[in-house]
Structure formats: structure tokens, C-alpha cells
Amino acid sequence: MVVDPLLLKFGVWIGAMGLLLVALTVAGFRARWGIRFRLVGMSSFTVLLAVACMAFAVSYEQRQTIPGAVRVPIVFDNGRGLIIAAPQEPLPVAAIAPTLQQLAVNQSRRPQSAADGHITVRLRQVEPTEEAGVSRPRLLGEARLPLGGRLEDIRLLLPAVT
Fold it and tell me: Which residues does residue 135 pair with via DSSP β-bridges, in sequence order?
């Protein structure tokens, strides 16, 4: 669990301001101020914002980077352990394995409900065919990693280069 100290500090400060607003709201109800109901909204929003900041600070994890890996967008995620990523430009052969490793490690920390306890990350590229307007996907590689696994636990499956 990584804690972002700046967000945690902001959460504490915003929480202190929220408690001040709660005290001001209680005083407003006792004195029957005209803005007491607006103070309820401001104080509840401020307390909620403080809790959200602190929760995000505690749950934030920085993504791992692996030398030689290329950033590729994820185009499909079924939430049950299958993730497909597709580079928009042709990938060099040397970048396929590190890219798969980086994707697998970064996705294994997400809460998923994989049936077999593994995450499968597939890297594919869409290639045009002879027919106009028709393309087909080509599998560049696949990585399997246990949920919450480390870089050493990744099994790579790289098809023969054509």
C-alpha cells in the first residue's frame, strides 16, 4: 500500500476545515442563522472531500515501467482476467516482451475476478488484408500472471515471428 504524502496532507487540512464548518453549522442552528442550511451543504461536502482525498492517497499505486516497453492502449477488458491491448503503430520485435510484462504487472494489481486466479494479457495488432476495407488481428504475444503477482511470475507466450 503506497501513501501519497501530499494528498494525505491535503486530506488532513481539508478535514480540519470540514470540522470547522461542522462546528460553525452547529453554531448556526443554535443561533438560528439564515444560512444554516447552506452551511450543512458546505460542511458535508468538505468532509466528504477530505475522506475522498485521504482514501485516494492511501490507495494510489504508481505504475511500474520496464525498460524497452512501449505504452499501448487497452482495447478490451472483460473484468475477469482477460485484457487485450493493441498498439497503434507497428511494434519492434524487441519491445513486445517488455511491453507484455509491463502491462501484466500493472494490471495484476487491479481488483479482478479471474476464474483461474490468473490474468491473461494479449498484445495484438490489426493488419490490413488484400481486400479493401478488411483487416485482421494478429497476435503479437500473450502474458499470464497470477493475481497480485510479481514480474518474476509472468509466463510469456510469444508466437514465431513472421
Answer: 128
SS (H, E, C) 16-65: HHHHHHHHHHHHHHHHCCCCHHHHHHHHHHHHHHHHHHHHHHHHCCCCCC
Q: Are residues 86 and 141 located together in one domain of the fold?
A: yes
Would you say residue 69 lies in a domain? no
Please give the grid coordinates belonging to residue 143: 502474458
Work out how many domains the chain is built from and give that number. Answer: 2
- Grouping H, G, I as helix, E, B as strand and the rest as coil, residue 118 is strand
Query: Is 83 in the same domain as 132?
Result: yes
Q: Domain span at residue 97?
A: 74-157
Mean pLDDT for the stretch of residues 62-89: 87
pLDDT digits (tens, 9 = 90+) for 120-159: 889 999 888 888 888 888 899 999 887 767 777 788 888 8
What is the pTM assigned to this prediction?
0.64
Q: 95 and 48 in one domain?
A: no
DSSP string, 132-157: TT-EEEEEEEEEEEETT--GGG-EEE
